[in-house]
Amino acid sequence: MPVKRGVIAFTYAFAAGFFEELGWTAFAVHELKSRHRILGTGLRVGIAWGAWHLLVAVWGSAELDEPRAFSATAFLPQLLFYAMVLPAYRILLVWIYERTSCISAAMVMHASLTASLPLALAPSATGLNLALAYLVLAVVLWAGIAIATSTGAFRSSRNEQMLALRGLLVCGATSILPYLASLILLAAGRYNNCAESQSCIVETARGAANRAQIGPLIVTHNLLTILFGIGLGSGDLKTFPLHLVAFGAIGMGVQAAAIGLLSFIHSGETSGTYIDTLRGIFMSSESLLRLLAIGPGTVIAGPTFSLYTLLSIALCLLEACVKATDSSAHANDPYGPWKPIWESVGKLIYLQWVFVLSIMQARKLQGKLIDAQFKKSS
């Protein structure tokens, strides 16, 4: 059955890639690229590409037992895929076609996307789980596009580079959303005695019904945190304090991802292994990275933000002291009954500080963009 499904998927994928790209790339992209840049062409064709499949998404969103009944849980993953993944992927297709002038490359890329997703995700992921998987895929694709655009890799204009950089900064403000969603799912699943979400997924929530939903949320949060750090460390915002904040943000994203990876490798039944040691090292570095990220905020902006930064640092130190006291009081329990609460509080203190800094720097960059446009027009 898997072999048969694979043959059908590849046959359908290459047929779709061949015939669709005769229209999308050979005609639409070829006509538009003479009037627009790569980003503009890709967005226009990508949105049309997604809209073209909208009826298919509606038709495919019926309940199995009631073919005429519309199912929102079946429609949501397809909507995310067609509205978020396809436009981003089309930009990459346009870039490849621009670089190679080879329509066959676009056909192969189209076919690979069509064939790989059913084989990788279906039928194991459906409904909300599939939607979250598509969300992670969309974040990865748009992250690559934003970074490439901000560096001028897509022959992007100055305005497009500034907008891409602004998008990277806004990632900091949005990174709190998937983290809050994961906490809600953790609370709903009654996961106790775990130090952080990544450990909860594997150790405490092993076999839980919503474990597959928490994982993509944590991955999305880590990706957004890293993208925020990349945005701070590049473009017109380069200053030494911001570089330190960027290093701390990227470090926290990588550290959280490493903990998640080590938690998946960890068996959860033995202790004292090198996996435990590595995980302990990464977990102990969180408070240091958090203070490294927040500390330079005292000299980034005016006195109001400096005071706000000092308050955030004080709260982080208080959280670390309370967590250490609680851990020493429960030496036999490495996590302690309240440690999950302290971990979440400390992370939320940092994330709300990132939220404020992200909005502040994005507005500052927007002001520079407006000034540049005004000077150009005058």
TrEMBL record:
Record keyword Ribosomal protein present: no
Transmembrane annotation, as ranges: 6-29, 79-97, 104-125, 131-151, 163-188, 214-232, 244-268, 288-318
Alphabetic keyword roster: Membrane, Transmembrane, Transmembrane helix
Pfam family, one: Rce1-like
Alphabetized InterPro entries for the sequence: Rce1/LyrA-like_dom
Gene Ontology MF term list: endopeptidase activity
One GO process term, biological-process aspect: CAAX-box protein maturation
CAAX prenyl protease 2/Lysostaphin resistance protein A-like domain mapped to chain residues: 7-113
Superkingdom in the source lineage: Eukaryota
Name this polypeptide is given: CAAX prenyl protease 2/Lysostaphin resistance protein A-like domain-containing protein
